[in-house]
Amino acid sequence: MTTTVPAFPTGTILGYPRIGRRRELKKAVEAFWAGRIDAAELETIAAALRSTTRERLVGLGLGRSDSSIPESFSFYDQVLDAAVTVGAIPARFAGLVDADGHLDLAGYFTLARGAGENLPLEMTKWFDSNYHYLVPEIGPETRFHLASDRIVREFEEAVAAGFLTRPVIVGPVTFLLLAKPSEAAPAGFHPLDRLDDLLPVYAALIERLAAAGAEWVQLDEPGLVSESIDIPRDRALAALAQAYDTLGGLDTRPGLFVAAPYGSLDDALPVLANTPVEAIGLDLVRGTVPAGIPGLEDTTLVAGVIDGHNIWRGDLAAAFDTVGQLSRLSENVAVSTSTSLLHLPHDVTDETKLGADLTSWLAFADQKIGQVATLARGLSHGQAAIQADLDAATAALAQRRVSPGVRDGAVRARLNTLTPADFSRGDYESRVAAQEAVLDLPPLPTTTIGSFPQTTEIRRARARLVSGDLAPADYRELMRAEIGRVVQLQEDLGLDVLVHGEPERNDMVQYFAENLDGFTVTENGWVQSYGSRCTRPSILWGDVSRPAPITVEWSSYTQSLTEKPVKGMLTGPVTILAWSFVRDDQPLGETARQVALALRDEIGDLEAAGIQVVQVDEPALRELLPLKKKDHADYLDWSVGSFRLATAGVADQTQIHTHLCYSEFGVVIDAIRNLDADVTSIEAARSKMEVVADLQTSGFDHGIGPGVYDIHSPRVPGVAEVTELLERALESIPARQIWVNPDCGLKTRGYAETVDSLRNIVDATRAVRAALV
Which residues are catalytic? Predict the structure, then answer.
């Protein structure tokens, strides 16, 4: 190197929410998709949002000119951004690329959403978070080149406004580890085979950033903490050494900060410490302080001691003690969040209805930055300078432990009476016979996952109910009218098992949180799930119980409208935990069993009301699987156990369904079998039924509904496309097991595309069904 790397900032964060405090980016992106604004206007809105964010972060305590602010904006997804930056555009989208290999904003969104017959990139979970990323497709034919300089331009934008920020990009090793082979790739190919070709592009980007004046660049390498990525560990570690020896050896470059969130680096840490990288980010919320690693004494260790993955205020004194332990390994230590704050709402002061006690226990993204700033001040000026802040956090923790509702004696007594019989149903074949006699369904029965499109009228009615402008009785009649329309539509289309469409539900978790003790909900606690999709995770703060039935009235009314079976629709205990901010003062398994008992009561009431099919959705089952293999068995024990506790109280003739999506199902296929649901529906359309090979190999013998309609794209699958998917499924799975359904719920789709898609699904199913005879 020909330049000296400046000191790393004492306090920083790994990333910040990018959707805006009032979801400004979501609204602008969707306006662009709808044609209400053009690309130039979208760029202007995004630039204003980035400017507002930088000013906000300085106001919260980060430095204006010391690289402590990460430049981590994205229009849709950071992995998609990396793919577009290095030119990893699948061949089917080649027509979107100009002569210089560049992609405009419309093309960028097309990769995420698909167009015509061209399927979008697959989507799956980002490690063990509720964020979804788009999976790059890499093959021998992929032409890596610096195809986008947006990262450089956004850094220059910040400099022009008076900020010296830190550009952020997914690191080259994680980028290739998370990618999948393209359709043109030969057998045995892995995207990591292309590391030699990718590194010069990263080098060119880093050199461009140096020329623009960047002092530090952040390369996110969470792939290094995961043991769930299907590649030999020694190969991943060799790639790590090669990548950062190469990038660290550039003559002119910024300082390299490699961040490794979501767990401990373990055997990757000594490898990274032996490269020229100047700073390493350690997740010390999920991991522990390392010991005996040569080379760390010359490296800035960035202590991720503030939890970026949850909203609790936490133990600030313990965090500062951890920073002190790290200081014994290196003279250069900084404080950071454990992960990007992408996973958190913006600001707890935006909430006016939580109550003073609960609010005092919480820290959203802005409060987390305040905690980082406090600990950084302690590093610089000593513990005495921040002792009052440490004491305040300790007092809040103590008050939380004794607050009413945090522990409920009745709930805990009920858990203590459980026996193994509470977790088990009768044998599967007996249940199949009982259910066939009651339901009398055709081969390849058709259904949907649960929700139907939530129209503007539905959302407006709900808003009027919340504001008090609509009486509860009037709201109830509006929802009943919508349910009637949805039932009639399904009858007209010819679906076999119907749903009520869930018009009364704002969110599949929040709806239950609002009706269970131990939960609360937020007004403005929006978090990005994928693209423009945002959710408001509920807060599970105390022991959980069900004060009254939640769904029975709606399901009973729906069943009264049709002779066909109607599914009762519930969200499962694992997903309720995964998509909420869950108390951190007891094991997750204990909390899951509390939720499961509440759901068990609800299922019992549905069965008593004559509902013959009950679906308990668990799309997050794979999502929460720990990244370390040593933790898998315990997780699978309590997660599967909580589902079985919720569902095992019904009679044989009551058919239990579950639904999973956004997962590499092969990883948890045994867990799916152990759930012992009668029917499991899964995402399969984007991957073109890749999962059926895993199902066949595993000997899975329960009902299975591999999705044939990708509901996260506006595309309408044609009859031929659905037929091909069904035929592919039938090559590996007996027809008696197969159900036909979309990948997921239809809440985010419009009615026109939904009706056309479902009609094509029914037509394709009838044709395939006829061929079975």
Answer: 712
Low-confidence ranges of the chain (pLDDT < 70): 1-3, 662-667
Strand bridging mode 655-660 / 679-682: parallel
Cα–Cα distance measured from residue 135 to residue 112, given in angstroms and rounded to the nearest whole number: 10
The amino acid that residue 169 corresponds to is I
Q: 637-674: b or e for each residue (b if 16 or more CB lie within 10 Å)? A: ebbbbbbbbbbbebebbbbbbbbbbbbbbbebbebbbb
Whether the CB-CB separation of 199 and 247 falls below 8 Å is answered with: yes
Cα-flanking dihedrals φ and ψ of residue 302, to 5°?
Answer: -100, 110
Among 462, 499, 531, which residue's Cα sits nearest to residue 754?
499
Distance, in Å, from the CA atom of 16 to the CA atom of 20, rounded to the nearest integer, reads 10
Please say whether the beta carbons of 314 and 361 come within 8 A: no
CA distance linking residue 773 with residue 767, whole number of Å:
11
| Rounded to 5°, angle at Cα 435 from 432 and 437 | 110
Cα–Cα dist 21/534, whole Å? 12
Alpha-carbon gap, residue 176 to 154, rounded angstroms: 24
Cα separation of 567 and 748, whole Å?
20
pLDDT at 2: 47
Q: What is the C-alpha separation between 611 and 368, in angstroms, rounded?
A: 46
List C-alpha distances in Å: 493 to 373, 480, 490, 754, 770.
58, 20, 5, 11, 17
**Residue-level pLDDT at 3:** 59
Render pLDDT for 550-571 as a digit per residue (tens, 0 to 9): 999 999 999 999 999 999 999 9
Instruction: Record the tokens describing residue 437, joined without a space.
Output: 């006699």
- d(CA 494, CA 442) in angstroms, rounded, equals 12
Q: pLDDT digit string (tens) for 195-235? A: 999 999 999 999 999 999 999 999 999 999 998 788 999 99
- Which residues are registered as beta bridge partners of 660? 682
Q: Which residues contact 53 (CB under 8 A, 6 or more apart)?
A: 16, 18, 73
Using the Cα atoms of residue 577, residue 578, residue 583 and residue 588 in order, give the sign of their dihedral: positive
- Report the C-alpha gap between 237 and 265 in whole angstroms: 11
